[in-house]
Write a structure and sequence with these properties.
Strand content: 15-25%
Shape: globular
Structural class: alpha/beta
CATH superfamily of the largest domain: P-loop containing nucleotide triphosphate hydrolases
Order of helices and strands: HHEHEEHHEHEEEEEHEHEEHHEH
Length: 339
């Protein structure tokens, strides 16, 4: 993407926009300094980023939620619900209409089975979640690192494939906050990046993997290898409406899929028009994030050519232990009536 290429360097484009970045930085710092964070009655973990756009926050949120549940916690998840058409706060279940929830919260609900709530006001979303599911004893906020109205106990910053770009804030650079913000988070999660970061904050690597494939029209599941073998001699295509679609395509190639055509649909693609209708291929591989919308569009959901490639991020046990320990200290203070 042209904009990301410009943001990767401190060239003329960045220099011309640098005065506006100064204004952006002043406004964002003012808002942060004057925010009055509200506390929820359970520990809150924020999984966010400082790079505008996708860095892999949602897969990390899913991995974290699963890991904490195995450690004995009862997590719930809140999110803004980017791209949703509805206002206010709303509970999200596996069968919620994606237009009212956003694709990522719906994906979280489907993959984890955990209580999920969306809303621009994360505090209100958290309250709704706790009211509807009182067993929740920890809340994970998918995104929201800059949502200072919500008091958080643990902050995780995900750094994705683009790293931190040229290190400047919007619009001269790609950052919502300056790189110094990394010094104040509890941990950094490195997802598909070799970025060099000048910070002493603990860093943990996340590894990505493709799992089983599911035929969209029937729900039939196969391993990637079995699918490739079953369709030997057939033509393949791939499509992705995610932040870095080329990574999805590269992962498919690494598993032996030679896709004659690839469609970069744009992050949070709406599927209001069917991009597969005239696509000449025997098998079309799509992402789970796109699938939550495609399942709710009859024309696409009934297309037997479409297979959903499972995708997961694996996070380090040490990261889970860090979050667990910090959250347990906070929970202990709360039980003793301490702020």
């Amino acid at each position: 993407m042209l904009l990301h290429r410009q943001w990767a360097k401190k060239g003329l484009f960045a220099l011309l926009l640098s005065p506006f970045s100064f204004v952006f930085l002043c406004v964002s710092r003012y808002r942060a300094m004057h925010a009055q964070p509200e506390r929820l009655p359970v520990p809150v973990v924020v999984v966010g980023n400082i790079y505008v756009g996708g860095t892999g926050k949602t897969p990390v949120t899913i991995a974290l939620a699963r890991g904490l549940r195995k450690m004995g916690w009862h997590p719930g998840v809140i999110s803004r619900g980017y791209g949703r058409k509805a206002d206010g706060v709303k509970l999200v279940g596996p069968n919620t209409d994606s237009s009212s929830s956003g694709d990522e919260p719906l994906l979280i609900a489907r993959k984890t089975g955990l209580p999920v709530a969306v809303g621009r006001d994360r505090v209100e979303a958290g309250r709704l979640l706790l009211k509807s599911s009182p067993e929740i004893d920890i809340i994970i906020s998918d995104d929201g690192l800059q949502h200072y109205a919500l008091r958080r106990d643990v902050e995780l910053c995900v750094i994705g494939a683009h790293g931190i770009g040229n290190g400047w804030v919007l619009p001269a650079g790609p950052l919502r906050e300056p790189p110094s913000r990394l010094d104040s988070v509890d941990a950094i999660v490195l997802n598909a990046t070799s970025a060099i970061l000048e910070t002493r904050t603990p860093r943990f690597a996340a590894s990505s993997t493709l799992g089983r494939c599911t035929q969209l029209s029937t729900g039939k599941e196969l391993t990637l290898e079995a699918l490739r073998g079953q369709l030997e001699g057939k033509t393949f295509a791939a499509a992705a409406g995610i932040a870095v679609p080329t990574r999805f395509f590269a992962m498919l190639r690494a598993r032996g899929f030679i896709c004659e055509k690839t469609l970069e649909l744009g992050d949070h693609f709406s599927f209001e028009s069917n991009p597969f209708k005239d696509l000449d291929a025997d098998c079309i591989l799509i992402t789970e994030k796109d699938a939550v919308k495609c399942r709710q569009i009859r024309e696409i959901a009934s297309d037997p050519r479409i297979w959903v490639a499972g995708y997961d991020i694996v996070i380090e046990d040490y990261l889970l232990e860090l979050v667990d320990q910090k959250a347990r200290r906070v929970k202990s203070r709360m039980e003793k009536g301490k702020p």
